[in-house]
Each structure stands twice: as structure tokens, then as C-alpha cells.
Amino acid sequence: MNSIWKSVWELQVPRKIQLFIWRALKDSLPTKLNLTRRHILTDPVYEQCQSTTEDTLHAVWRCPEVQTAWSKEDWLEDIPHLEASEFLDVWGQVSKLSYPDAPALFSTICWALWNRRNKLRVRKPTEKPERIASVAKGYLKEFRACQIIPSSNQKPSSNPQVKWEKPRQGFHKINYDGAIFNDLNEAGIGVVVRDHDGLCIATLSQKIRYPQSVDITEALAARRAVQFARELGLHSVEFEGDSTCITDALNGNDFSQAAFGLILDDAKNLALSLPNHSFHHVKRNGNMVAHALARRAKHCNTHKVWRDSYPPELEPLLRYDISH
Fold first, then answer.
1. DSSP helix, strand, coil percent of the chain (3-state; round to 5)
2. Backbone angles phi and psi of 215, in degrees to 5
3. Bigger pLDDT: 197 or 48?
4. Which domains, ranges and CATH numbers included, belong to the chain?
5. Which of 8-12, 118-122, 172-176 has the highest mean pLDDT?
């Protein structure tokens, strides 16, 4: 089992997916069969198909409905659905495939299928089976995009490396950013709140209709950052974004005649309720977490807020910010 453990923890996937796969391989997921064995449930039959006992293998691989999710994954065509006796058997076969990144992709799709199963059990809306693989691939791609952080062993350039800096003692720093999804005619807003120790206390990803301008998107992100500060009950805040024109307009005394003028005027009025606040500009390398959250909004229905938490795929970026 040690070699399997090593292979799981070498996967380039979010930690929660590593933990999920490890539990699946140990047969410790709360399937109906396992819950029946522990005398928590009395019926081990899977509700979705009503055909057989729900164990891990059935829940994410063998169920006819689940097979719909796998049907277009040609890289798995050499693995028969019916021959394996347990999930560990399938994992062993996937690990031997020559297809690039097969174990990571397989793990992410299994995790997405398990999440779908959990939502169905409590009658929450979820993706159709045939969409699951596509959603999982997008999630994995987004996670890996967040891992592309500046290398610590790069040769120093003539300009010092821009980095995120902690706020002053007693202050919170709120970074914000916007992202454009041209293929969807939508945009994303990302906001991250950290204290003077650099600890993340809240994050936000929000999808909006594309407002036809990058600058307007950045202005909406700035206003959402101020609103978020008020929602969290903060008092002393340093706001930071990577758009020079937005920061200059926020610090200007005159009303901006630009298309985003009304938005920023609203943001400044909202900020008046914060006893101590200021607006600052930072280059993109100092705004990586907010940028990742804005990009993440592409996969949100509308918006998502994490209080005293953050999406696990942001951990490398957050750790990088406070360690350099």
C-alpha cells in the first residue's frame, strides 16, 4: 500500500481530491454499503439505479448512469467496466495507462462524480452525467493555472521582484481583480482578505455578465471589495488592485468622466463607512490570489464566499505570498 500512497500524494491535484482518492482506495468512503455495515443505514441499494448495492466501485465507476460520464473518455477504453471487483483494481489499471496524466484526470472525475452523488442524495441541483468529465477537466486546468507562481530560483532582473506585502498592524488588506471570459460573454470578480499576519480570513469568487470593458470589470471588482469589507465588519482596510487607472480614479478628488466613474463614485461613498481605508496599486505578481479567484469564478453559478477559509487550490499562492 505504500507505493499506492506515494502515487496518490504525487498527483498534481487539489489536496481534497488526494484525500478523496485515498479514502476510496481504502474503501472508507461513506457509501451505502459501508454505512449499512456500521448499522447507520439498513438498505445498501443505490437509489439512483435501484439495481445493486452501492459500494465505491459502483458509485463512481460501474453504475449505468455513471458510465455515461465515462463514455466519451476514449483513453479509458481498454479498461473494462465489469471485470474489476473493487475500486483498487481500476486504480491499478489506470496507473498503467500511457495516456498523459491519466491518474490525475481519473481522480478528478471520480471526485466530481462523488460530489454529484452527494448532491443528488439531498436533492440539490447538479450537472448531468455527460457534463461531469468536462467540468472536472476545467476544474483541474484552473487548479494548475493557479500553481504557476514565480520561481524562487529565477535570476534577479534589473527590477526587483514585485510581491504581495502584509498590511500594517491592525489593518486588513483586501486584494481584488477582474477576469474576462470572452467565450461565455461573462466576467469574474475575485477578492481576498488577509490580516496583518498574512492569514487569509475570507475569499470571494463572483461571476457577472461581461460589462463590455476591462476597466469597468476592474471597477466592479473594486466596488465589490469595498462591499465585502463592510459585510465582514472591517474597520481599517488597505485595498489593492492591479489596474493603475482604477486606483488613480479611486484616489482622485474629482468625479471621473470615464465609463466606470459612477461605479467608483459608489465605491468611494461606500468606503466612507470604514474609519480607516486607503487604495493602492500593485503589479500583477502582487495580486496573484485575487486574479486566481477571479478566474475561478468561471466555474461558479453566481458567486461563492469562503469565510475563515479559501479554495484549497489557492494554498500554494497564499503560502508563496507570505514566505517571500
1. 45, 15, 40
2. -65, -40
3. 197
4. 2-146 (no CATH), 172-323 (3.30.420.10)
5. 172-176
